[in-house]
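Record LiaF transmembrane domain-containing protein, 331 aa.
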Amino acid sequence: MKLDRLIWGIILLFIGGVLLLENFGVIDFYWRNVWSFWPVFLIIAGLNILFNRNNSQTGSIISIGVLVVALSFLFYRGQQVPEHSYWWGNHFKKDIDVNIDHNDGDDDHDNDDDDNNRDSSYHQLKLTEPFVAADNAKRTILNISGGGISFNLDGETSSLIDADIKKRRGNFSLKKVVSDSATVLTFSMDDKKGKWNFGDNGNDVNFKLNKEATWDVLMKLGAGEANFDFSPYKVRTFRFDGGAAALDIKIGDLLPITDVVVKSGVADVKIKVPNGAGCRIKTKTGLSAKDFDGFEKLSDGVYETSNYKTSTKKIFISLDGGLSNFEVSRY
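=>
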């Protein structure tokens, strides 16, 4: 067996084993604890390249030994409860003190915040867009992008959108473009230096949305977590494209049809749908773990609730992931 195939096999077994142990409640594994050690995989890849070229049996043993030791350390480190829950863990941060307002991304109005004397580098930023009644008949599209961010949805606002940010790094902006058919909001973070920073240097964002608008939410999250309770909002579409991320959303039944599309790499995805709505799930999940409580399996990759055909409110869920954990439940 080639060394590179053996190494990837061990890594996949490690990830699958951890996800399985989590699913059965044997362990609590905090993935964000291990991301700062990602350079170890560069070292393993380098050893693999060197020893594969020389066909050295001793070298192969060394590579496998280094990999096993590294994964053992990561397994131990991942079970340590983190001091902060900024992103991805079994426990989302429920009491994030975050807030966003509109100043066109200008950081000159930021206020210092020592975050309970832990870190004086945090700043508060608020971004907002006013609600215009004349535009409410149009689609309201919210584009969200960023990395290393913990997103929350915390109540309604009389504005169209409020965003409260507790930031340590990066520049944030909220822009609005109005066309004949839609109001497009774009919330984004520009932070090239911190693009691959997965440590405790993240940012917290707390959204408030107007309940009168009908929302299409399109989210692209490189690394981080999103915890959104959409049940009191009219959400027509929610699309999520994430890498190493945690997603926890609750969908309501205020519209006849709601579409939820999730594409992820290595993610922990939890979706809650109301009992009164009929729901269909289509999956393309590779090696991902799946738990669809209250659904009947119709065929490979297709699941439905028993009231799907008779319900006047329908939710369509599409899941596409490589090494992710997908859970869909009813409330």
